[in-house]
Structure formats: structure tokens, C-alpha cells
Design a protein that fits this description.
The structure holds two protein chains of two kinds.
Chain A: E1 4-10, H1 15-30, E2 35-42, H2 50-64, E3 66-73, E4 77-79, E5 82-84, E6 88-94, E7 98-105, H3 113-125, E8 133-140, H4 147-158, E9 163-168, E10 173-175, E11 178-180, E12 184-191, E13 195-200, E14 204-216, E15 219-223, E16 226-227, H5 230-235, H6 237-241, H7 249-254, E17 257-260, E18 267-270, E19 274-275, E20 281-282, E21 292-297, H8 300-317, E22 325-331, H9 332-338, H10 343-353, E23 359-364, E24 366-370, E25 376-379, E26 383-388
Parallel strand pairs in A: 2-3, 8-9, 22-23
Antiparallel strand pairs in A: 1-6, 2-6, 3-10, 4-5, 4-23, 7-12, 8-12, 9-24, 10-11, 13-26, 14-15, 14-21, 15-16, 15-20, 17-18, 17-21, 19-20, 22-26, 24-25
Helix pairs in contact in A: 1-2, 3-4, 8-10
Chain B: H1 14-98, H2 103-108, H3 112-117, E1 122-128, E2 134-140, H4 144-156, H5 158-165, E3 170-171, H6 177-187, E4 191-199, E5 202-211, H7 220-305, H8 313-344, E6 352-354, H9 357-373, E7 377-382, E8 389-391, H10 393-410, E9 416-424, E10 429-436, H11 443-446, H12 459-463, H13 470-480, E11 485-490, E12 494-502
Parallel strand pairs in B: 7-9
Antiparallel strand pairs in B: 1-2, 1-5, 3-4, 4-5, 6-8, 9-10, 10-12, 11-12
Classes of the chains: A alpha+beta, B alpha+beta.
Amino acid sequence: MPTNIAIGFSSANDPVTAFKEAAIMAKTQSGLPRHDLTLIAVTPTYTAADAHTLTALENLRKILNPERLIGLTAPALIRMEGIENKGVLVLTISSDEIHMGIAAQHSISLLPLQDTGLKLARELASRMSTSERHGALIFCDPLALNHTQIVRGLQEGLGRAFNVAGVISPGTMFLQDHLLSDALGGLIFGGKTPFTCAIRHGWQPLGKPRIVTDSESNLIRTIDDKPAISIYREYFPEDMAGLPAGQLGDIGLLYPLGLSTMHPKEYLIKNPSAILPDGSLVCQGEITRGTQVHLMIGDKDSCRRAAHDAAVEIRDKLHGRNPKLAFIFASLARRKLFGRSAGQELNQIKEILGLACPVFGMYTYGEFGAATSTDLQTHNASILIAGLG
Amino acid sequence: MHDIAYPATGFDLTPILAIVCLVLLTGLGIVLYMLIGKSEELREFKATYDKIMGSFNELDEQAKLIVKTDLELNKAQEELDRRLNGLNTLQNLARNMRTSLDENEAFQRINPELIADLGFSRMLAVSSNDDATFASRATIDLDPKKIEIALGKLSANADLVNALRNGMVFSSLSSSQKTRAFIVSLFETEHFILAPLLTQKGLTGFLFTGNRYNASAITEGDEELIGILASQLAQTIENTHLFEQVYRSSQMLETKVSERTKELSHALKDLEEISKKKTEFISAVSHELRTPLTSIKGYASLLITGKIGAIPDSVKERLMKINTHSDNLVKLINDLLDIARIESGRVEMKTAPQPIKPMLNNINDLLTPQLSAKTLTLHVQVQADAPDIEFDASQIERVFINLISNAIKFTPPHGTITINVIPQWDKKNLLCEVADTGIGIRKDDVARVFDEFYRVDNEINMNVKGTGLGLALARNIVEAHGGKIWVTSELGTGTMFHFTLPFKHTAKEGPRAG
């Protein structure tokens, strides 16, 4: 059977109706009685009551009859037609050429994270032989973790050069007919169809460089021997004063920290998610002591360009071909930056990947990806594109 | 001071020591020189370092300025986005509400999603009761029990209610600290906007929207938007009231119309009943009259002939008058009987397809003596393509004779009477016209000439006897054929009677060739 890709969407108020409508739309498009894979992304209103969500999931499964089902909660959805603040997005793939496997771990905050990452990687890897594997999508529920440990586990299990595109998005996760929380899930692709990823951000350094003088795991304790929060207090004295304790608000999204990498012009972006009482900043992923750090500033043009470059990279990696399916994961920081014109970024990507290329995407709180000069890392404020085809 | 004693070695060490000292001194000098040089370099390096650090700090100061400006721009953009989203939402909300014809429905259409799109998580829509208290009509994310207490306190705050009555909008952004604290305490909502619902009647309620968290503070734009929304809601409420009034009025009107229609229907039925009885009465009476009249006329005629015996001339003259009056009475009775029969449907028109022209020629012949007596000219103009139509020749002949006789009667000597017969293919009928150059009919009389026993009040009618049934009979005959009859007239110029006879199935479609 050739590859059959279908996408359904609904924004009906009631979860049962929305799941059903999206499933029927996908099934109508695919025209198949069963589907090899169903991937769903839903906005948080649809997972507020587990009982309703379970019924909705059960109905969806009856309609689509999926062999594998995985899904997650997202703050907003991205599809070909645009950005949706509310809805249920359903993707079905049925193909002899694309091999797929799913796996998930739950209650991960209680477990050693690297082991969890490794366990997931091994489970995914076990779904197909080494030679077949092309890449994986990783979904991580908890926000405040040292995601670097998870990434290390994944790399250990799948290999350092393995294509991984991952998202951090808190909320209920779906695996077959179960609802999971505090979970880490994955979807591996293999077979004849290549899978490739690209990640970019578009943020620029601003002001003088500083040094992380003390850090621990995903905490930046001091910068230039001062509490890490000082960097924001210096730049935004008035605005910081008005914020609730422990929160950076929009400032952390619009003006992230940029950590220097091996590449002189490449920065790993971190949106501090919280401030500890001692002034330490909580980030996603590990921060190494001695790393040079900058306050970063973004503008729409450079961010659009970054999205453009990521899409071009996908097409280049596919030898100039448009992908059969594009996964787009964009940071909420970008949504904040673009405001009403958030769709421009999507249009930029569609122009490169082709207007007919089906899109399944969402906004995220963090991204796993490998930039040009780095291994797999936890990024923020970035746009991550994965192309299948 | 002690002299230094040197052992006798045979060598004089002094020059060597001197050289060593010299070398050491030179070395020291060089080191000192180098140290001085290095120190200079260090000073220069420090100066450069300080300069670079200065530049960095300067850069950082500039960066702070850039960031500040950028943040302000971002905030401005966010505010603009919110305003645009708000306007968009407001438009949708207004459209939703405008289509509502029920007050409750209008309130219910302010749903959580639209309020969230406006940037608020809480909402309370309230209407005023007749006793100046408030009643909650729609709420989002507010405790109903607390609302009741809050509304009680609010209605008791005369200053606030008066200010609302004057159209004042309150918000956490612009209200006085005291008012702000009061409203925050009422609804436990840190950031709020409270806007009045004002209609022509005055304060009919208020709209409260708000957020609990600092991140969602109110802006001036929000105040404007909620102010507009409140106006829209008030307008909708007013419209629903007006609609209700109109609806009630229309219901009352419909009831009245229905009652009147019923009454009229009864009246019509009564009239029909009366008309039927009248027709039956006329028919019965006419029959009863005609029988003895026939005897009277027969006996009078017999007496006039003198077969029974000779009668004096004076008696003969009286008998002649009886005979004439009997004839008139018979005619009157016959006409009445005909009208009654036609009205009751008891006369069946013996229609047959035929041309109209031969009948008109016969009429011409028949009326020639009367026309000559008054030196009148009769023109008969039948259009060449007039088709054969289905009609009862004897009845239509009566119509023509009636109309032409009238024309003769009311046209002064040397006048002209014209008969036109024109096929109307589009209306599928034959139009017949009898026009004269007579005295004409007054406008008031035109509408009544076809009424039974109606005689136009003019000099001629005063001198010439008539029944007033001729035109009524003509109308009945034409209508029994499915046609229409009417009259146009100009006083002193002439009168034209028009009547139509439908083609029915006999006439060919379209004018005759040739």
C-alpha cells in the first residue's frame, strides 16, 4: 500500500464531539478501515476531565481503528490551514514504506531521568532493526526537569547521530487506549521513507557577555558571581518589580538567555521558567559552569528567516524534495513574539515545503533537537521541523 | 670598620669581583629596565582592558535602552493585537447578540470563549429589577452565592449606582482607590471593568468583566471595548423589548383581524343568504305575476279585437293602455326572471362557437328604424382577425341590443354610435365596445349603472320609461359567459360600454393570418 496520510481537525466544544469529528474527517480523507498510526494533539480544554477524554478517545479509536495511537496535549495547534488556539488535531499514517513504533513511560519525575530516556529509546529501537531506523519524535510532559538527562538517555539508546525531534508540552498524554500523566513518549520512524529534522531560533545576543559562575543541573545559580536573576533585574528594573514572586512572565519568553556553543555565532536558547528565592534561574536542560551567556533579543524578521532556514534545511536533506508530511513544533516564545502575525512563520515554511505538504504541528514549552554544531540538546524559543518523505 | 682579609691564593680576586659586580649590576639594570617596560605594557594593557570594559559597559547601557524600547514596542504590539482581537470578538459578539430577539438569549450569547478572546476570564451580566435591585443574568467563573451578596451591596451603594446611571465606566485602571477596593471586594477580582447598560429607560443593568491575575491587567483599550460591548448589550436588550412590544401588538392585531374577518364572513354569508332569498322571491313573485298578467293581457287583446262585442272608442283606448302597460310589465317581469335565473345559476348559457359579425349585422337591421327615427349613424367595426368564439347568441344579442338601445336613447339626433369588436390575443378574449356621442354619465353614476333598478337621474330618463334592469341583465349575461363589463364616460361627450368574452377553447392562439 502506498503511503496514506490524512489529517482531521475539530474545535467543537465538547471533547467527545471534537474527537469524533476530527476522527471522521481524517477517516474520510484516508478512506481506510484501519490505520497503522494515529497521532493526536489536543489543546488543554479537551483533557480537563479524564472520564470525558477517555470516552472521546474510545470513540476515536472505534472510528479510526489504529494499530498504534499516541498523542499529547499542546497549548495551541498548527495545521496547514493555520494556527488553532483550541481543537483536536488527528493525523493518520498508513504505509508499507514507513515503519513506525510507539512507546511511553509514565511517572517519570520519580525515576532517574537518564535511565527513563534510555528505557524509552530502547523500547522504540526494539520496534525495528538498526538499519531501518530513521528518526524519532519525542514527547515530554513535565516542564521542570533536567531534560538533558533524558536527552542523554535517548542518545545512549538510539545513538548520538540519530535524528530526534522532541517537544516539551505539559498535559495528558495518550498511548493506545490509556491516558498518561508525567510521561515521556516517543514515535519512531523507519523503512524506506527518510526522516529528517532541523531546528533554528533567530534570537540575537544583546549587551555584554557574562559568565555562568555557578550552576547545578538545570539551575543557573550565579552569573558573573551575582544571583542569576540580576541579569534581568539590570535590564528590566521596573518591569521585574511588578511581577509575582518566582515568575519572569513574558520577559523570560521575549528575552531568553543565549548560551555560547562551540560555533561562535550559534547560541543555545533558554527561557528561564522560574526564579528560586535565592535568585537562581530554573531552565530546561543542563547548564555548565563557565559557559558564556548573553541576554537575547528577537525580532520578527530574524525569526521568520530562522523558520525559512529550517525549512530549507529539511528540503536540502531530502535532496530538494518536498516532504510527504511536515511536523512543525514552535516555541510559545515565538507565538508571543509574533502575536497576531504568528501565521507568517507557518506561511514561510509552507512556501518552502510546498503548499500541498500536510502539516501536523503544535506550540511547545521546549524543544529537543540537534543544531548545526551541537548534539541533541534541550532548546527554547526555537522552531523545530521534522520532515517525513 | 674591619678590614677584609683575603687568603693568600696567589690570585688577585678584586678584578673578578668587580666584573661580577658589574655584570650583576648590568643585569639588574636590564631587569629593572625590562620591569619598567613591562610595567608600562601592563599599564597600557590595563588601560586597554579598562577601555574595552568601558565599551562593554557602554554597550550594555545601550543594550538596556534597546531592550527597554523593544519591550515597550512588544507591549504596544501586544496591546494592538489585543485591541484587534477584541474588536474582532466584539464584532462577532455584537452580531450574535443582534440576532437575538429574546432578552435571556441575548445574555446567554456572551459565552466564555468570546469573553476569553476579549482577554477576560470572569464575567457577570446583570439586569435591573423594577425595585432598583439587580439580578444576575449570566456569569462566567464567579460564585453565584457570592454574586447575590455582591449585588445586594452594590445596589445599596447609591453613589456607585448613580455614577453608573450617568454612564460612568469603572475599572481597576482608572477608578479611585476607594471605588476600586469596593469593587474588588465585591467580586474578588483584582483587574476589572464595570460598565453600565443604559437604554432610553435609563440604567437597565451592568456588565462586569475581569481577571484575577496580575499578568492580565486592564488597559485603556479594554475599557473602551467593554464600554462598547455594554452599549451593544443594552441596545440588544432594548431591541428585544421593542420586538416584544411589536410582537404583542401584532398578535393583538392578528386577533382583531381574525375576529373582524369572522364577522365579515358571517355578514357575507348573511348577505348571500339574503341575495338568494331575494332571487327566489323575485323568481316566485314574477311567476305568480306573469300568469295573471298573461290572462289580463289576453282578455284586453280579445276585447280590443271586438270579437266579444263592440266597445266604445274610449274603452278601446283604455284597453290599449292596459295592453301597453301589460307589455311593459311582462318585459319587466321577464327581465327580473332572467336576472334571477342567471344569478341563481338556473339559466344555462347555450354557447356554441360562432362568428360575432353576423349577429351584429342582424342587430343593425333590427335597430335601423329606431336609428333612422333619431337620425343616428351606427358603425359596426369588427376587426378582420376576430376569431369565432363560444357564446350564447340570443343572450349576447340581448346585451348588444340593451347597450345600443341605451345609446340611441341618450344620443342626440345626428349622433354616432360605434360598435368595435377587437380580439385581445394576450388576454385571450374578445373586446366588444359600444360607444356613443351622447350626453354621457356623471362620475358618481358610472359606478352604479349596473345596479338593479338604478336609473341615472337625467332629463331623458325622466321622460322615457325604463325598468333599470337592462344593464344589470347585461352584466349578468356577460359574467355568465366568463367576461367582464364596464363603462367609461365623459359628461357631454359620450359613453362607451366595454365588455369581454373569453376565447375559451374555440379561438385559435394568435391572430389570424392575413
